[in-house]
Amino acid sequence: MRKPFRSEQFVLAAHNLWFGKLWVRVIASVISILVYTAAILCLASVLGIAVNYFVIIPVIVCSLAFGIIGGVISGTLGLISNNLLLILRGLPEYMPENHPVALITGLVLGTTLGILASHYRSLGQEIVRRREIDTRLRNALKERSLLLREVHHRVKNNLNVIHSLIGLQSGYLKDAHSVELLNDLSRRIGSMAFVHDQLNDKPYTGALRLNRYIPSLVEHILSSHTTSEIDVIFRIDDSLPEISLSRATTLGIIINEVLINSLKHAFTDTADPRIQIAAVSEGERIIIRINDNGPGYNPKTVTKGLGSNLIEALVRQLEGEYGYTLVAGTEFSLDIPVDDASRDVDRKESDL
């Protein structure tokens, strides 16, 4: 919501002072009546018949001060008080010649101004009410954002605790295969914790920018699970849309599985290990490609393990497609729809 201009602030302050303080309107009405009475008593002989116009002063002020009721009463009493003052002054010849027309004119003027004043008062009250509601909503949104950040922080900490417990447990095992299985599980949990860590480090919007999330996740996985120098080349489209928390977690596990497969099998005999990560938006699709320069393998000739089955299930969950290409190493490609990737984000933003 934009900050109101000074003129708007002045109008609202004047509205609150006028309609919020009864004594201000009473004093203004009394002053207008005194000014009108003084004008009749002092200037009637000088202005002649034109002095009758001074009755407009209390009619206007009382109408603006007390709405329709004030306008009707002041418009009705204006002619009577005007005539009485002129008689008191000894100048009855200056009274309006057509009393019905003067009375109707006062009523119309007072009623019209009273209606406008009542409408203006209701508009001001509505503006104040909406500003109060806006303030309460903003405070509630800030509180909810803080709570959500705290939730993500706690989830991240819990996942890191599980990650650490698995690492401690693997230290007591002697079987290399069991240790490797626990390490794989620990890496998957680490990828899930990384998503919550990313959300916790910025104002909560319920989504992550893919052009920032993918490079950070890849660097986190590689730095956590390998000590060798691997050249990583990113080709990430800056126009990639946001992705919701649930989809980011799913995508993060898929990327983790693909990268770990490369680290395990592609670089055992590769002198200059290299991984290329590309992500682009093509029409209504998001295309992600992960390529290594290892010797390559044909996944159709290899027995599927937990990682391969996990990738297949998670890609199906994203309602996407995936495949492998054996050209200058192994390239994994993932194709997911843009609208599905942003649907959860729109729903979370509307909830906020």
What do you see in this structure?
- The protein has two domains: 6-137, no CATH class; 205-351, Heat Shock Protein 90 (2-Layer Sandwich), CATH 3.30.565.10.
- It has helices at 6-20, 22-47, 56-89, 99-170, 176-200, 210-225, 245-265, 306-317, 338-351; strands spanning 207-209, 231-236, 242-244, 274-282, 285-292, 321-325, 330-337.
- The strands form two sheets. The protein has a five-stranded mixed β-sheet.
- The two termini are 15 Å apart.
- Helix 2 packs across helix 3 (56-89), helix 6 (210-225) runs parallel beside helix 7 (245-265) and helix 7 (245-265) packs antiparallel against helix 8 (306-317).
- The model is unreliable at 340-352 (pLDDT under 50).
- It has 352 residues and is α+β, with helices and mostly antiparallel strands.
Question: Could you name the key traits of this structure?
Answer:
rod-shaped, 7 strands, 352 residues, 9 helices, disordered C terminus, single chain, 2 domains
Would you identify the CATH architecture of the largest domain? 2-Layer Sandwich
Q: Runs with pLDDT <50, length 5+?
A: 340-352
The general outline is rod-shaped
Cα-based radius of gyration, to the nearest Å: 39 Å
Determine the structural class based on helices, strands and strand pairing.
alpha+beta
Distance between the termini: 15 Å
**Tally of DSSP helical segments:** 9
Biggest sheet strand order reads 2-4-5-7-6
Strand content: 5-15%
Per CATH, the superfamily of the largest domain is Histidine kinase-like ATPase, C-terminal domain
